[in-house]
Design goal:
The strands form 2 sheets. Strands 2-3-4-7-6 form a 5-stranded mixed barrel. A 5-stranded mixed β-barrel has the order 9-10-11-13-12. Strand 4 and strand 5 form a beta hairpin. The chain has 3 helices and 14 strands. The protein is globular, with a radius of gyration of 20 Å. It folds into 2 domains: 73 residues, OB fold (Dihydrolipoamide Acetyltransferase, E2P); 100 residues, OB fold (Dihydrolipoamide Acetyltransferase, E2P) (Beta Barrel). 18% of the residues lie in helices and 41% in strands.
């Protein structure tokens, strides 16, 4: 009787493990070149979020740890910096090497073009851009909530993760929100706002009053 009971429990354990593994699905395709700093030259902009427009494209900016980048002192000017690339698909961010950013000379680059896409009501999840784009995998859902809140509190740009009708996940840079957003991280929420393309980055300029839990 005991052998049969132990054998049955083993079968149940294996079945549960297989079910959980199948349901989990693949991890997001993202990467972080940890401490592999590369030189970049371009113009920094503080809006709609700290970013660098370089010959290689548009990069969001952050600092080591759970800290956003403060580029106000550079006044939309040319700089040289070294950064470690954080990337998920077409979305890219640079973790700036401490002390590496310097003013540079040369012909100024124009701000990235802004394309108005339209007004939308969207349902999705708020995440922090740094971890989600590649520093941690996978950096969404309630298991990542505490870490995301600390990153967002430190100035890391927030992202809004939405799925289209085909189920494809899209990453939107979320702007126009204050600290109230911290209470809604990693939960299904609904937002209304203006969708724009700024360079290669899709931006949701949200209406804070529209934020609702689903």
């Amino acid at each position: 009787m005991m052998r049969r009971t132990v054998f049955a429990l083993l079968l149940v354990t294996v079945a549960i493990a297989l079910t959980l593994t199948t349901a989990q699905g693949p991890f997001d395709q993202s990467s972080f070149a940890f401490q592999q700093y590369t030189g970049y030259f371009g113009t920094v902009f503080a809006s709609p979020a700290p970013m660098l427009v370089a010959a290689e494209g548009t990069f969001l900016l952050t600092r080591p740890g759970k800290h956003g980048a403060d580029v106000d002192q550079w006044g939309d000017g040319l700089v040289r910096l070294r950064g470690a690339l954080i990337q998920s698909g077409r979305d890219r961010m640079l973790e700036i090497e401490p002390g590496s950013i310097r003013a540079a000379s040369g012909p100024p680059r124009v701000p990235p073009p802004i394309e108005h896409i339209g007004n939308f009501h969207l349902t999705g999840e708020i995440a922090d851009g740094k971890c989600y784009l590649g520093v941690m995998n996978t950096a969404r859902g309630k298991v990542h909530r505490d870490c995301a809140v600390r990153c967002l509190s430190g100035g890391v740009p927030p992202m809004f993760l939405v799925r289209d009708a085909a189920g494809t996940l899209h990453t939107l840079l979320l702007t126009g929100m204050g600290r109230d957003v911290l209470d809604y991280v990693a939960e299904p929420v609904r937002l209304s706002g203006v969708l724009q393309r700024v360079g290669s980055q899709i931006v949701l300029k949200a209406n804070p009053a529209s934020l609702r839990r689903e």
